């Protein structure tokens, strides 16, 4: 009888352990969910006049040194790929950029916001650029903050960096300021991501926004001056340093539902 009781106890313990392992596996699987629920991609062309007031006046650009317009994916893909350091035959430089904003469901308690900027042709000016994500006050940053800059040289060597940047963290946005790599490049991209949670855990959220933005320095700026910015749903807000940067429309990923 004692042996039977021991066997029965072992069977019960084994079943209990299996049930526990299964439950833990389900919880772990739920926590790792990263389903993209909203995504927006925009393409841009920036035409910059290099210190030529006559051309600027003729183009009706006044004191502006650049003009950015949204373009089609086809025009972006057909743009020439340049290394960004070759001598320029004219006083006009044209940059092509692709910006993607995304919202992903990370778990029942968190969402992930992301922004990714890709260069079609490499920028001629390599100073301190800024990438940011704006969001509603109904959510707040919970962690998972990440910045990454990836690039490949024309010699075939590739690099990925996630350090050496300045971070801005506000009530309605997150941003990273960083230095562009030097040398002859054949690819270049930057990305940021954050995890957000409800500001009020008992509230019901019916809309979210991840407003991605990017500011490219068109002339050399100091590290300390480049830090003078903030981020909200309107994008990157430049203060005393606005004359150093180009300006693009935000790429807004918008999610609607019930959370």
Describe the structure.
By secondary structure, the protein is an alpha+beta fold. The protein folds into two domains: 1-32; 35-256, Immunoglobulin-like. It is 18% helix and 46% strand. It contains four helices and 14 strands. It has helices at residues 2-31, 53-58, 73-78, 223-226; strands at residues 35-49, 66-71, 92-105, 111-119, 128-134, 139-153, 158-161, 166-170, 173-179, 185-198, 207-215, 229-232, 235-238, 251-256. It has a seven-stranded antiparallel sheet. A hairpin with a 5-residue loop joins strand 3 (92-105) and strand 4 (111-119). The longest helix is centred in the N-terminal third of the chain and has 30 residues, at 2-31. The N and C termini lie far apart (55 Å).
Layout of helices and strands, plus pairs?
Elements: H1 2-31, E1 35-49, H2 53-58, E2 66-71, H3 73-78, E3 92-105, E4 111-119, E5 128-134, E6 139-153, E7 158-161, E8 166-170, E9 173-179, E10 185-198, E11 207-215, H4 223-226, E12 229-232, E13 235-238, E14 251-256
Antiparallel strand pairs: 1-2, 1-3, 3-4, 4-10, 5-9, 5-11, 6-7, 6-10, 8-9, 11-14, 12-13
Q: In a few lines, what is going on in this structure?
A:
This protein has 259 residues and is of the alpha+beta class.
Instruction: Compute the number of strand runs.
Output: 14
**Beta-strand percent range:** over 45%
CATH class of the largest domain: Mainly Beta
Helix-strand pattern: HEHEHEEEEEEEEEHEEE
CATH topology of the largest domain: Immunoglobulin-like
Biggest pleated sheet: 7 strands, antiparallel
What is the correct CATH architecture of the largest domain? Sandwich
Taken from the alpha-carbon principal axes, the silhouette is globular
């Amino acid at each position: 009888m004692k042996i039977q009781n021991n066997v029965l106890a072992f069977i019960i313990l084994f079943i209990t352990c299996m049930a526990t392992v299964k439950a833990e596996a389900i919880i772990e699987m739920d926590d790792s969910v990263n389903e993209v629920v909203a995504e927006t991609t925009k393409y841009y062309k920036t035409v910059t006049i290099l210190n030529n007031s006559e051309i600027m006046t003729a183009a009706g650009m006044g004191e502006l040194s650049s003009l950015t317009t949204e373009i089609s994916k086809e025009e972006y893909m057909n743009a020439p790929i340049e290394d960004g350091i070759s001598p320029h035959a004219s006083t006009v430089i044209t940059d092509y950029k692709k910006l993607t904003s995304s919202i992903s469901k990370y778990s029942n308690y968190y969402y992930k916001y992301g922004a990714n900027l890709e260069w079609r042709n490499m920028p001629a000016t390599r100073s301190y650029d800024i990438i940011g994500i704006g969001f509603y006050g109904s959510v707040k940053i919970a962690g998972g903050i990440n910045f990454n800059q990836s690039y490949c040289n024309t010699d075939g060597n590739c690099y990925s960096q996630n350090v050496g940047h300045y971070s801005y963290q506000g009530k309605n946005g997150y941003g990273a300021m960083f230095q562009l790599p030097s040398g002859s490049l054949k690819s270049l991209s930057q990305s940021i991501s954050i995890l957000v949670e409800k500001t009020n855990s008992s509230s019901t959220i019916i809309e979210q926004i991840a407003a991605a933005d990017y500011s490219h320095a068109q002339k050399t700026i100091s590290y300390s001056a480049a830090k003078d910015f903030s981020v909200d749903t309107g994008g990157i807000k430049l203060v005393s340093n606005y004359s150093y940067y180009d300006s693009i429309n935000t790429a807004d990923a918008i999610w609607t539902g019930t959370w």
